[in-house]
C-alpha cells in the first residue's frame, strides 16, 4: 500500500480481533484498543490468586461455526475437544440425553433433532405438538421483513399461538431459550428465538453438535492470534477506555479519544458488546448528536454468573456438558466437567466443575458464600454422588449486562455495519447481518464484514472470504418458496390494515 491507511479498531473480542487481523493482512496500519487489561473481553480468562485458570463462562463452538474453525486451522492451532454428548437436568433429575447427531443416520431437517434425543419423561405426543411451529420456522427467513413480522411478539406468545404443549414448552423450548438467548420466553423476541433455534438446532441435524476449548479461549486462541496480528505490524493496546470521537468538518472521524490518549485514524471500527458501545455513547458528545446512536440506548444486556468449584475427590459425571432448568423460574444454567474438557484439569485429583447461570439478576447480589452454597445444592440434585465430596476452592465471577438481550421490539434499535458517519463501521453479535449465524460465529463474521467495508471505502486490499451458512435442505427450500408465494399473494390481495 503506497500510503498505509490508519485504522482504529475498538474492542478486542471476536469481532475486533477478526477485523484487525484481516486489515493487518491487507497492509493497513491497524491499532486495536481494548478497555480491559488483556484482549478477549468476556472470554479472555485469567488466573486466580492461587494460579488456577478461570474465565467469565464456558463458551461452546457449534458444528456450523465454519468460519471460526477455518481461522484456528489457519493459525495452526488445535484448541478444541472432540464433539461431545450433552444432557439436560431438572429438579426431578435427568431429563434428556443427546447423542452426537452427525454420527446418527441423517434424517430430513428437523426430524433428527426431534427423535434422536433420549427423553426420560417427555411423551411423544408433546414432542409432536411442535410440528405446527414449522410454519413459523419456514416463514422466518432472516430477512428484514421477517424480523419486523416476528420481533415484537414474545417467544412465549409464538409457541402458544402455534399450539406447542405447555409441557414441551416448559421442559424443552424454554430451557433452550434460557441457555441460548439467556432469558425466559416472555422476555425474548420471537424473531430472535426462531433465528437462534433454527441456526443451532433445526436447520441441519448435526448443528447441535458442539466442541469445547481445552482451556480458556484467551490462552488457547486469543493469545496466539494477537501474536500473529503483532507480527503483521498491528498494535494491540490494552487499558484504553474510549470516551469520544473527534470529527472533521466533513463529518468523518478524525481521531478516537481515550481517557489519556488520542489516536488519529482514517477509519474506525467499533467491535463492542451492546453494553460497551452504550458506555461510550453515554460519555460521547459526538455520538450523542446522532439519533441512531441515541436510540441504541434502548438495547440492554443480561446478567451472567460464572462459578468454578474444586472438590477434594473425583466423582463420576456422566457427560461433560449439561444444561439445567426449573431450579429458578427465570434463570437457566449449565455445568461442565472440566476434568474431561480442559487440559489443565485432566490430572487433578478432585473434580473441577464449572456452573454458569444466565439471566442471573437475582443471584448477583448474593455473597460468594451464599452463591457457592446454592450452586452446590443445585449440583447435588443433578449429581447426588457429589454428597461425599468437599469444596476446597472456588471462583465466583459476576458479569453484569454481560450478553446481548434480544428482547421483544429490540430489532428496530439494532444497527447495520455502516453508520451515518462515513468512515465509522460497526461489528458485534448484535449487528444486523444477512449471514444468519449467531453468538461467537456471528461476532467473528461481522468483524470480517466490517473489515470488508473498510476495504470498499479505501478501494485497497482483498476482501475477506466469508463462508456462508450451509444452505437449507431441498425440502425446506421448496416449502419456503411455497410459503413465500402465498405470502406475496396475501400481501397483494388483502387490505393493509392487519397488524403484524
TrEMBL record:
Residues 15-455 form the Amine oxidase domain. SUPFAM superfamilies: FAD/NAD(P)-binding domain. It comes from the Bacteria. It holds the Pfam family Amino_oxidase. InterPro entries: Amino_oxidase (IPR002937), FAD/NAD-bd_sf (IPR036188), Zeta_carotene_desat/Oxidored (IPR050464). Gene3D superfamilies: FAD/NAD(P)-binding domain (3.50.50.60). This is FAD-dependent oxidoreductase. It comes from Spirulina subsalsa FACHB-351.
Amino acid at each position: 500500500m503506497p500510503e498505509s491507511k490508519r485504522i482504529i479498531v475498538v474492542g478486542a473480542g471476536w469481532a475486533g480481533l477478526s477485523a484487525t487481523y484481516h486489515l493487518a493482512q491487507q497492509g493497513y496500519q491497524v491499532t486495536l484498543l481494548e478497555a480491559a487489561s488483556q484482549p478477549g473481553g468476556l472470554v479472555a480468562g485469567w488466573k486466580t490468586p492461587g494460579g488456577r485458570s478461570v474465565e467469565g463462562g464456558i463458551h461452546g463452538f457449534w458444528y456450523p461455526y465454519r468460519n471460526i474453525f477455518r481461522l484456528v486451522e489457519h493459525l495452526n492451532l488445535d484448541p478444541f475437544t472432540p464433539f461431545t454428548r450433552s444432557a439436560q437436568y431438572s429438579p426431578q433429575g435427568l431429563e434428556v440425553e443427546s447423542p452426537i447427531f452427525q454420527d446418527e443416520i441423517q434424517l430430513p431437517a428437523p426430524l433428527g433433532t426431534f427423535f434422536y434425543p433420549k427423553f426420560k419423561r417427555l411423551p411423544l405426543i408433546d414432542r409432536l405438538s411442535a410440528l405446527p411451529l414449522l410454519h413459523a420456522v419456514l416463514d422466518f427467513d432472516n430477512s428484514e421483513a421477517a424480523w419486523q413480522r416476528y420481533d415484537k411478539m414474545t417467544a412465549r406468545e409464538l409457541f402458544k399461538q402455534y399450539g406447542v404443549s405447555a409441557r414441551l414448552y416448559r421442559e424443552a423450548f424454554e430451557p433452550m431459550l434460557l441457555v441460548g438467548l439467556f432469558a425466559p420466553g416472555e422476555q425474548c423476541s420471537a424473531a430472535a428465538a426462531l433465528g437462534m433455534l433454527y441456526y443451532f438446532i433445526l436447520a441441519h441435524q448435526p448443528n447441535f453438535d458442539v466442541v469445547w476449548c481445552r482451556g480458556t479461549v484467551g490462552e488457547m486462541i486469543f493469545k496466539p492470534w494477537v501474536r500473529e496480528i503483532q507480527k503483521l505490524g498491528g498494535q494491540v493496546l490494552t487499558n484504553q477506555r474510549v470516551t469520544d470521537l473527534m470529527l472533521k468538518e466533513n463529518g468523518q472521524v478524525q481521531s478516537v479519544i481515550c481517557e489519556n490518549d488520542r489516536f488519529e485514524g482514517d477509519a474506525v471500527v467499533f467491535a463492542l458488546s451492546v453494553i460497551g458501545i452504550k458506555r461510550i455513547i453515554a460519555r460521547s458528545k459526538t455520538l450523542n448528536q446522532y439519533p441512531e446512536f441515541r436510540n441504541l440506548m434502548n438495547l440492554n444486556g443480561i446478567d451472567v454468573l460464572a462459578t468454578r468449584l474444586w472438590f477434594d475427590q473425583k466423582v463420576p459425571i456422566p457427560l461433560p456438558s449439561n444444561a439445567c432448568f426449573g431450579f429458578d423460574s427465570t434463570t437457566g444454567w449449565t455445568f461442565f466437567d472440566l476434568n474431561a474438557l480442559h487440559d489443565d484439569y485432566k490430572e487433578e485429583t478432585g473434580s473441577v466443575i464449572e456452573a454458569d447461570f444466565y439471566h442471573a439478576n437475582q443471584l448477583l447480589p448474593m455473597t460468594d458464600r451464599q452463591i457457592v452454597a446454592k450452586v452446590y445444592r443445585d449440583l447435588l440434585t443433578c449429581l447426588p454422588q457429589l454428597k461425599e465430596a468437599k469444596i476446597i476452592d472456588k471462583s465466583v465471577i459476576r458479569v453484569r449486562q454481560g450478553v446481548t438481550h434480544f428482547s421483544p421490539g429490540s430489532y428496530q434499535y439494532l444497527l447495520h455495519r455502516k453508520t451515518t458517519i462515513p468512515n465509522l463501521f460497526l461489528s458485534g453479535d448484535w449487528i444486523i447481518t444477512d449471514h444468519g449465524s449467531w453468538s461467537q460465529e456471528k461476532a467473528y463474521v461481522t468483524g470480517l464484514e466490517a473489515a470488508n467495508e473498510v476495504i470498499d471505502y479505501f478501494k485497497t486490499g482483498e476482501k475477506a472470504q466469508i463462508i456462508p451458512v450451509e444452505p437449507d435442505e431441498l425440502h425446506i427450500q421448496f416449502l419456503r418458496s411455497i410459503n413465500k408465494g402465498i405470502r406475496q399473494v396475501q400481501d397483494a390481495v388483502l387490505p393493509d390494515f392487519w397488524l403484524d
